[in-house]
């Protein structure tokens, strides 16, 4: 049975101004989801993903939180045009930046809007487990801190189990340093470490944790965009092979010769098609399609769970053929 990756109209129930440039959109949606997941919004003729700041375990309402990105198309359109009562189109929740079945501490590092999925994870971990939870937020200044009071309330409600520390660039001598990351990680090297924020912040935090002796398998990262601004792990297409790639888009079949080193998304574009995509880095799942013939592998997969992969779903921006003839079907 195919999973529902289509778009659903949902009404905005209310909008909460969190900081000068960040708003929470409370949606009239009753979708099942896991803490840390995201929905993908269709707006302005394009697609963008937004994580839930609500927790399915503690919140009755379904909330996403969006920060303006300077010069950004969709985030600014949402802030400038959306009002309570408006309809928006979103996918069902997806993503693998979720809690694992474990009792080890949860230590999170987040910068800016990266706190959105972290708040959801923290609320669920505190409400449904006995785990120790610690969060380091990094922001420009005190006015930029999103969910400061929500995090403070959790610290009050869970004394001895939850600690939040705020790093403010303006008062703490600039950006977070590797030393500060190691200091916050402390001796909890076997914890689950969650990281979400601007790319340089995530890179520094990941490097610092690895240098601190943390196993890479203990580090979970949610990338809000392409790691470098470029597609992840780009490799130039090389030569035509004897194989074929058949793309089924809007019910129509298009077959092109296979090129080694080419993703399905690139093959589709070469066929003159315009399939959906957003991050082109394996993070958002907007480019999802199903392999119905042949086999594929993904270079990066930060968005599909094991069941989806077993069912043949593939991120076309990261998927490439393994067998000579592969058919990839986009949902209508
Ligand atoms: C899984 C996932 C979860 C996410 N969760 C959240 C969340 O909870 N909250 C949140 O706020 N965001 C989240 N994001 C990020 C979000 O999806 C968008 O990427 C973000 O809102 C920016 O989109 P935009 O359309 O406003 O900006 P875009 O138009 O995509 O622009 C992004 C940047 O590129 C620059 N740019 C645009 N066009 C050009 C050009 N032609 N040349 C040079 N530079 C250009 C812009 O100036 C801007 O700096 C998430 C992303 C992913 C993948
Ligand atoms: S476009 Fe985002 S995962 Fe492929």
CATH domain class of the largest domain: Alpha Beta
Total DSSP helices: 7
- N-to-C SSE string, H for helix and E for strand: EEEEEHEEHEHEHEHEEEHEEHEEE
Give the rounded overall mean pLDDT: 93
**CATH topology description of the largest domain:** Rossmann fold
Tally of strands: 18
Number of separate structural domains: 3
Radius of gyration: 21 Å
What is the helical fraction, as a range of percent?
10-25%
Q: Compute the separation of the termini in Å.
A: 15 Å
Superfamily at the CATH H level of the largest domain?
Nucleotide-binding domain of ferredoxin-NADP reductase (FNR) module
Shape: globular
Question: What profile does the largest beta sheet have?
Answer: 6 strands, antiparallel
Poorly predicted regions are none
- Name the ligand types: flavin-adenine dinucleotide, FE2/S2 (inorganic) cluster
Named at the architecture level, the CATH assignment of the largest domain is 3-Layer(aba) Sandwich
Strand order of the largest sheet: 4-3-6-1-2-5
Structural class: alpha/beta
Q: What portion of residues belong to β-strands?
A: 25-35%
Protein name: Ferredoxin-NADP reductase
Keywords: 2Fe-2S, FAD, Flavoprotein, Iron, Iron-sulfur, Metal-binding, Oxidoreductase
Cofactor: FAD
Domain 2Fe-2S ferredoxin-type: 243-332
């Amino acid at each position: 049975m195919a999973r529902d990756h289509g778009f659903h109209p949902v009404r905005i129930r209310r909008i909460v101004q969190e900081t000068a440039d960040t708003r929470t959109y409370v949606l009239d949606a009753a979708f099942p989801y896991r803490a840390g997941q995201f929905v993908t919004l269709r707006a302005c003729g394009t697609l963008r993903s937004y994580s839930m700041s609500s927790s399915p375990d503690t919140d009755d309402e379904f909330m996403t939180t969006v920060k303006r990105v300077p010069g950004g198309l969709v985030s600014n359109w949402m802030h400038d045009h959306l009002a309570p009562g408006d309809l928006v189109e979103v996918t069902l929740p997806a993503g693998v930046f979720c809690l694992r079945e474990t009792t080890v501490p949860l230590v999170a590092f987040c910068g800016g809007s990266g706190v959105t999925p972290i708040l959801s994870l923290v609320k669920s971990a505190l409400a449904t487990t006995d785990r120790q939870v610690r969060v380091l937020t990094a922001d420009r200044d005190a006015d930029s801190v999103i969910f400061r009071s929500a995090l403070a309330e959790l610290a009050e409600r869970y004394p001895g189990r939850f600690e939040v520390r705020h790093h403010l660039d303006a008062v703490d001598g600039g950006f977070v340093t590797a030393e500060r990351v190691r200091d916050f990680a402390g001796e909890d090297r076997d914890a689950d470490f969650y990281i979400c924020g601007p790319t340089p912040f995530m890179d520094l935090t990941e490097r610092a944790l690895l240098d601190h002796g943390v196993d890479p398998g203990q580090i979970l990262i949610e990338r809000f965009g392409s790691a470098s601004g470029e597609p992840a792990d780009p490799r130039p297409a090389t030569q035509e092979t004897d194989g074929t790639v058949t793309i089924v888009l809007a019910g129509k079949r298009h077959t092109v010769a296979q090129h080694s080193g080419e993703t399905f998304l690139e093959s589709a574009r070469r066929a003159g098609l315009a399939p959906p995509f957003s991050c082109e880095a394996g993070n958002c799942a907007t480019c999802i399609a199903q392999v119905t013939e042949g086999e594929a592998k993904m270079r990066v997969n930060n968005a599909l769970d094991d069941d989806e992969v077993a069912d043949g779903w593939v991120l076309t921006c990261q998927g490439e053929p393994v067998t000579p003839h592969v058919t990839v079907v986009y949902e209508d």
